[in-house]
Amino acid sequence: MKISEILNTDKPYLSFEVFPPKTRSGFESVKAATEEIAKLRPSFMSVTYGAGGGTSKYTLDIAKNIKSLHGVPMLAHLTCVSSTRETVRQRIEDMKNAGIQNVMALRGDIPDEMRDSDRSQWDYRYAAQLVRELKESDGDFCIGGACYPEIHPESANQREDIKRLKEKVDAGCDFLTTQMFFDNNLLYNFLYKIREAGITVPVIPGIMPITNANQVERAVKLSGSFMPQRFKSLVDRFGSDPNAMKQAGIAYATDQIIDLYANGLNNVHVYSMNKPEVAAKIQSNLSDILKK
Ligand code: FAD
Q: Ligand 1: which residue has its CA nearest to atom 40?
């Protein structure tokens, strides 16, 4: 099933993101965790793609497994910046042959060793090129793109970032998924601005439940997200007690999700980080709301 069809309804939904193992030895435990998450019957599941494509094979293996065992619609991520055109075309062909209908088209972070190289020699510099390539392929994919309510770190300002986002959407994105954020007002402000800029595709908010104090620093470094005082206080108070922090982090994410539903965003994507118990707890916190 295409994600564009799922997004075309009024009902509140949850979808979950998982990541592939780094090595073959980690495959079975990741497979088991992702299957547990699939049993929750989310609207769809996404599988990330290792930076540089190192774990690309496992992305497809995990996606195929969940799709065939549990029938959950799958969104496979694909990055391009550190790949050749030939490799990317092969990955697109592999996804088509595996029956994957939804692809998240990403540039990927620029690896350190590429930073000073001649960019005119790169096969891909921006995600929009990958979006075009997917669109021109015969895969009939539903294509997603990433967006950044708090601006992509490489962009000079938000106007420039939204201008580039519009180009990416015009290249063929059917929907956008956001970077994590911890203050919903940042998302509402961003939505207002992109709609004004003529970007009309559905936007899926991405919510990261922070379930241990160590995750906070990593999440901020990775995403540059603003941490509201309410969230900082929670980490200060409960960060040293793992169970209490987990409960408080899940409650905070649940609260964000309820507010998003209340404001008309029907599908919320949870960065569930291969943690079935976190995904299940959030889902059970929302059980009556999700029945609506
Ligand atoms: P782009 O859309 O190409 O944007 C990158 C930067 O270039 C932006 O600053 C943009 O404004 C600018 N730009 C775009 N076009 C132009 C142009 N023509 N001229 C000048 N500037 C331009 N990474 C992974 O490795 N694997 C994953 O699975 C993964 N999943 C993700 C999922 C989501 C929802 C998000 C939000 C991010 C994900 N990432 C993933 C991280 C992502 O790869 C990085 O944030 C990366 O730095 C940017 O990727 P992008 O697709 O947004 O790039």
A: 108
Tell how far the Cα of 195 is from the centroid of ligand 1, in angstroms. 20
**Structural domain that includes position 57:** 12-291
pTM tops 0.85, yes or no: yes
How many C-beta atoms lie closer than 10 Å to residue 71's C-beta? 11
Query: Given a cut of 90, is residue 219 above it in pLDDT?
Result: no
85 C-alpha to center of ligand 1: Å? Answer: 18
Question: What is the atom index within ligand 1 of the atom nearest the CA of 144?
Answer: 34
For residue 106 and ligand 1, the question of a CB distance below 6 A is answered with yes
- pLDDT digit string (tens) for 258-287? 999 999 999 999 999 999 999 999 999 999
In a domain, 217, yes or no: yes
Over the stretch 33-45, which tens digit does the pLDDT of each residue have?
A: 999 999 999 999 9
CATH of the domain at 245: 3.20.20.220
- Please give the Cα distance from 263 to 151 (Å, whole number): 22
Cβ–ligand 1 distance for 107 under 6 Å, the answer yes
Residue 233 lies in a domain: yes
Residue 216's pLDDT is what?
Answer: 86
What is the chain's percent helix, strand, coil content, to nearest 5? 50, 15, 35
Q: Which positions are catalytic?
A: 17
Q: How far apart are the first and last CA of the chain?
A: 21
Q: Map residue 92 onto helix, strand or coil.
A: helix
In a domain, residue 72? The reply is: yes
Q: Is the CB of 179 under 6 A from ligand 1?
A: yes
pLDDT surpassing 70 at residue 8 = yes
Q: How many domains does the chain have?
A: 1
